[in-house]
Amino acid sequence: MSEQVRIGIIGYGAQGSVYARMLAEGSIPGATLGGVADHNEARRSIAAETHAETPLFENYPSLLHSGSVDAVVTTVPHYLHPEVAMAALDAGLHVLVEKPAGVYTAQVRELNEFAATKPELTFAIMFNQRTNPLYRKIKEIVDAGEIGAIRRSNWIITTWWRPQGYYEQSAWRATWGGEGGGVLVNQAPHQLDLWQWICGVPQSVVAKAGFGFRRDIAVEDEVTAMVDYGDGATGVFITATHDLIGTDRFEILGDKGKIVVDGSATATVTRLVKDEQEISADVGAEDVGKMFKGQLNFDDMHESETISFDSAWGSQHGEVLRNFAANVRGEEPLLAPGSDGMNGVRLANAIHLSAWLGREVPIDFDEAEYLSELNSRIRDEGQFPERS
Fold first, then answer.
1. pLDDT given for residue 197 in this prediction
2. This model's pTM is above 0.85
3. Which helix (H) or strand (E) holds 357?
4. 273-282 contacts: CB < 8 A, separation 24 or more?
5. Which domains does the chain have, with CATH numbers?
6. CA torsion angle for 210, 211, 216, 217 (degrees, to 10)?
């Protein structure tokens, strides 16, 4: 390998062009732009003008076998992520997959299993919110047991407002056959990842989703999902693309405290002096009377702190690229291993399936049943091939 990791961009669209610029201008330590592949001639022309010294390719196989790159980033339509990633791994290249890892679990499982046969290669996913210092600190607090066992979590994330014109930009957008879903697949994968990264993977889910609820689209633009973690612990996830005002509030309640995150920017962490049930047992009948009179001192039962960090939005994508290159060079572990991409896709699929069937479904649902339901909707659209 050269002194720097030569990274190729597959798909020079909105996101791919950003990564190419970051690499070309030297913003990613240890990495450089090695090549760009895009089947669209107009986008290749823009890339040629912007990156005159960079090799350009009409398709991704040509890039993979060119010898110009050591690694690639897959910024292609969702359905193509596993296909392109496996081809790159098969060519002996390191891979950073853009989110989501795929559209349905069967294809992501195939990708993960193939990647496992190439342990010498770095396989990562662009979960850039894992680099957010606020969420990394929250995960540390939860993992250290500072708020005890999690009993409930809920995330309202409706800051994804999209007008009708957004969906009319391209024929594939907001379709089952072209994009594979709506807000769960396009806007909210980062929160689905963070939720499980911090709070754990649930056992089952029951969901209500609005398909074309407030927009003229086939896929979901409104979702309310409740998950079951077992042992009485639950979680609620609410997201939408029609809330003009928008809310981003994440709460985690534990036996020994609570974390409340507002706007993905500030967290209030409250730690109880001891387990809540112990506190409850210590409050006798006389104290209950004081409580209803406003005379019970709750301040002695807990302490709170507010946590916030300065974190530029664009820097988070750059940090994943930097970490990816560092891992390729054997310098540090991955922040987001590619195999973790399964968690968000699986939960999104389970939410879809629950909403379609009108019942609770296990997180390890019947993949054949999901694919059958998905293909029935692709057939109804009549624009795209069915999936297998």
1. 97
2. yes
3. helix 341-357
4. 273/300, 273/301, 273/302, 273/303, 275/148, 276/148
5. 5-126+314-337 (3.40.50.720), 130-309+344-381 (3.30.360.10)
6. 140
